[in-house]
Write a structure and sequence with these properties.
The complex is a heterodimer of chains A (298) and B (282). Chain A has helices at residues 40-47, 69-72, 91-100, 107-116, 132-144, 162-179, 190-196, 231-240, 259-268, 283-291; strands at 2-11, 14-24, 29-33, 55-60, 63-64, 76-79, 150-154, 182-186, 199-204, 207-213, 223-229, 244-247, 250-252, 272-279. In chain A, the strands form 3 sheets. Chain A has a 6-stranded mixed beta sheet, with helices on both faces. Chain A has a 4-stranded antiparallel beta sheet with strand order 2-1-4-5. Chain A has a 4-stranded antiparallel beta sheet with strand order 12-13-11-14, covered by helices on one side. Chain A is built from 10 helices and 14 strands. In chain A, 39% of the residues are buried. Chain B is mainly alpha-helical and 282 residues long. Chain B is 74% helix and 4% strand. Chain B has helices at residues 2-16, 18-38, 41-53, 58-61, 64-90, 93-98, 100-105, 111-145, 167-197, 202-221, 233-237, 250-276; strands at residues 151-155, 160-164. The two termini of chain B are 30 Å apart. Classes of the chains: A alpha/beta (298), B mainly alpha (282). Chains A and B meet through helix 1, helix 2, strand 6 and helix 3 of A and helix 1 and helix 7 of B.
């Protein structure tokens, strides 16, 4: 549905993106992760045609954004961190104005979307009186009004309270479930990305250094937190079974070794087991491994 | 139809901002002051001398039409220019500064079309503002001296002199001149609009525009620039005064407005090219 191929961009001779490619399938929620200056926003700018790439390009449903900007963006809705609406107009006027650029304003459809994002009571108020959460709801409304097939979210939950973040996450997930919407989610809130996205790409210094499914984060070596005594005997058995000692109290076992069978071996050898729990590898673990320069799983 | 919907939205934005209305307020105050001064004995004596020196009847030409003409002649290039530069200089640069353009760029609209909508809005604002000044000035003048009387025109710099004793002829010429001023002022708005498309602050766009205007006017006053006065923008912008001549010098008017039109197109194109090739960070 959305494909970025070989994106390159320099700002003042400094590379912001270096040959970045990714593909977001229809109905998929795809996360773009990276620290500040990693190239996430530049990627989004290129997707929206706001930034001209030095190399590569983006297609949305097969239409090139760089060659046919207006046609390609017909199927796109976007939300930015701290969306800058026209504060001196009402929420309704903002929607009307922005829809004027998207093929026309349909009041009936606008009422329905405004109700869905829960802004009906305040839609006739000036935007300058809105809270951050209300602005984000209005941003969602303006993004959804053209009935997009692709939704681009740039740090949309920044500054929202936990309740607002949960509401936003549930809303986006419902859009995918109900409409099969494709979502590109650009964020540095790792927990949010992990909860929402099917796949993620991690950018570092303008390069894509990882791409994979969120469920696939568990695909590496199974890691266990253990408390075993005597520790020396236990370490010997770990090595014998082909595993490794990662740190004091943390072991890695071969993928094909049944942990239950290993526990049985330990018991038979007279090792006392006080704790033996699998460690779930989070997106944060992976992210930190990559940022710290550890080899990525791919 | 979609263009008009976009234009309607642009005008809604334009007139929703207090700075757009500042000019209207300033002109109403200035018109009131001019009228008060006009009613004073000293001013009337001066006016009487000017009219009677030309062999005309003072009571005919001390009129609402003459007052309105004077208001427009003296105020538009100086005070009007400030507001045209402010509004046109703001229209793109301010939205970029405030981040509003990000939301617009996420829409399926080309940058050319976006600028065309904004430029059309600026032209309409400029034109409507000039007519507002004319109509409000006339309404105030009618309240002060009555609606009757002719139109007396004297502008030594452009060597224009005309007198229309009949109200309807004078009013028609005044309306025609308002249209002429409106077209002339679009050039000033175009300069500000072009700078607004550049990567500069909105205030800088307005200030640079006014600087160009004032430098153009000052240089024109230098005696050794006289032979070249037709090369100055403000001289061309003053061509609306030829609409007051009897008979009208259409050739001079067409020449000047063709030149201004070409300049406007060039300014818009330069602004668009700069806008088109710029990166806008999210």
């Amino acid at each position: 549905m959305l494909e970025a191929t070989g994106l390159c961009k320099n700002f003042g001779g400094k590379p912001a993106l270096r040959d970045v490619s990714f593909r977001v399938e229809r109905g998929e929620i795809y996360g773009l992760l990276g620290h500040n200056g990693a190239g996430k926003s530049t990627s989004l700018g290129i997707i929206l045609g706001m930034i001209a790439p030095d190399g590569g390009g983006v297609t949305i449903d097969g239409i090139s954004v760089q060659r046919h900007h207006a046609r390609a963006l017909r199927k796109v809705g976007a939300i930015f961190e701290a969306p800058a609406f026209y504060d001196y107009l009402t929420g309704w006027e903002n929607l009307r104005l922005l829809m004027g650029y998207s093929g026309g304003f349909d009041a009936k459809a606008a009422h329905a979307v405004v109700a869905r994002v829960g802004l009906t009571a305040r839609i006739r108020s000036k935007v300058r009186t809105y809270s951050h959460g209300m602005r984000q709801r209005l941003a969602l409304a303006q993004a959804l009004l053209p009935e997009p097939e692709v939704l681009l979210l740039d740090e949309p939950t920044d500054g929202l309270d936990p309740e607002g973040i949960k509401w936003f996450r549930d809303f986006v997930l419902s859009l995918r479930d109900e409409r099969g919407m494709t979502v590109l989610f650009n964020s540095h809130l790792l927990s949010e990305v992990e909860l929402m996205c099917d796949r993620v790409a991690i950018l570092r210094e303008g390069r894509r250094v990882f791409e994979g499914s969120v469920t696939g984060l568990q695909d590496g070596v199974p890691v266990f937190e253990v408390d075993l005594e005597p520790w020396g005997t236990a370490c010997g058995l770990v090595h014998l079974s082909g595993g490794e000692i990662l740190s004091a109290g943390r072991i890695g076992l071969p993928v094909d070794l049944d942990p239950a069978a290993f526990v049985e071996t330990l018991v038979r050898a007279g090792v006392r087991i006080r704790a033996f729990a699998p460690v779930k590898r989070s997106l944060e673990d992976l992210y930190m491994e990559i940022l710290n320069g550890a080899p990525s799983p791919n | 139809m979609l263009f008009f919907e976009q234009l309607r939205g642009e005008l809604r934005k334009l007139f929703a901002r207090p700075r757009t209305w500042m000019g209207y307020g300033a002109f109403l105050v200035m018109e009131a002051v001019i009228l008060i001064v006009y009613k004073m004995d000293g001013s009337q004596r001066l006016m009487r001398r000017m009219v009677e020196q030309n062999g005309l009847d003072f009571s005919t030409y001390y009129s609402s039409l003459t007052i309105t003409f004077t208001i427009m002649l003296l105020s538009m290039v100086l005070l009007g220019a400030i507001y045209f530069a402010l509004v046109a200089g703001d229209i793109v640069a301010k939205e970029n500064e405030d981040g509003n353009l990000r939301l617009v760029f996420a829409r399926p609209i080309s940058r050319f079309r976006l600028l065309l909508v904004k430029y059309t809005a600026v032209c309409l604002y400029t034109f409507s503002f000039v007519f507002f000044v004319g109509l409000s000035g006339y309404a105030m003048a009618v309240a002060a001296v009555g609606w009757q009387g002719g139109l007396f025109v004297m502008e030594p710099k452009m060597k224009i002199f005309a007198a229309y004793g009949d109200w309807s002829t004078g009013a028609a010429r005044l309306a025609l001149s308002a249209a002429g001023i409106g077209i002339s002022m679009i050039t000033l708005s175009s300069i500000a609009f072009m700078f607004s498309c550049f990567k500069i602050k909105p205030a800088a766009a307005s200030i640079i525009t006014l600087t160009i205007l004032f430098v153009d006017m000052i240089l024109q006053e230098f005696p050794f620039f006289k032979p070249y006065q037709e090369w100055f923008i403000t001289w061309r912008m003053s061509s609306w005064l030829f609409l007051m001549e009897n008979p009208i010098s259409w050739a001079k008017i067409v020449e000047s407005y063709a030149l201004l039109f070409g300049l406007n197109v060039t300014l818009f194109t330069m602004g668009w090219l700069s806008f088109q090739t710029r990166d806008f960070k999210t």
